[in-house]
Structure formats: structure tokens, C-alpha cells
Specification:
Elements (H helix, E strand, L loop, with lengths): L1 E8 L4 E6 L5 H16 L8 E3 L9 E8 L2 E8 L4 H24 L9 E4 L2 E4 L8
Antiparallel strand pairs: 1-2, 1-5, 3-4, 4-5, 6-7
Length: about 130
Amino acid sequence: MIKAILIFNNHGKSRLSMFYQPYSEDTQQQIIRETFHLVSKRDENVCNFLEGGLLIGGSDNELIYRHYATIYFVFCVDSSESEFGILDLIQAGLVGAPARAVSAVKNMNLPEIPRNINIGDISIKVPNLPSFK
């Protein structure tokens, strides 16, 4: 079972944290700090699995993580989860999503370039752009 998903930068600043068990705000912040210290001190050439920190459940849980550029993607899971399945989820789901989004936008077949975009209360005027055809 996935207990938490944490994303933080090289300095330990949280970019996203999703906890699937009830923890107080203070405990969540302590878990993020502890997890950052555990994964950030590891060499790049070691495996991406390690025993969970004391606050997230100790030896009964695992931290499965990947470090890309300046961001750490960390899943806190119990022993019933597949380590390679979680790594695949990180690679395909989280990291691959921006590339798929850019590709989808590039491949849109718009009959003309929109001049005004309205989203709720926001109105955006699009400048004249050169044609990419």
C-alpha cells in the first residue's frame, strides 16, 4: 500500500506531498525532512530502495525514489508493493507526463491560431505568432 508520495528539490523544499494515512501537519513536515535526509545522502550509483524512516513506519516500510536533475520523487510504501512497479510508475507516470503533454500540444491540429482565450474570469489575448507549418 502506498503511504505517501513526496516530491522535493535538492534542498529539501517540498514541491508536493500526498499522505494516504492521517498524520498531523508537524509530523508530515518531520517525515519530509527525515525522508530528504535519508535519500539525499545516498550516492547516485546505489539502488533506489531503502528502509523507511522511523516516522513513516521504520523497517516495515520502504522508500522507493528516483532523483532527476534537481527533484526527488519518493514513494513511501509497505512491503506488499513491488519495488520495480513503483519505479516504473515514477518513470512512466510522473516524469513522463510533461513530455507527453508537450507532445500532445505540438500535435494539435488547430484550424487557426486562437486570438482570445477565455478561462473562467481570465481572458488572455494571444499575440500574432509566426506560422510553424
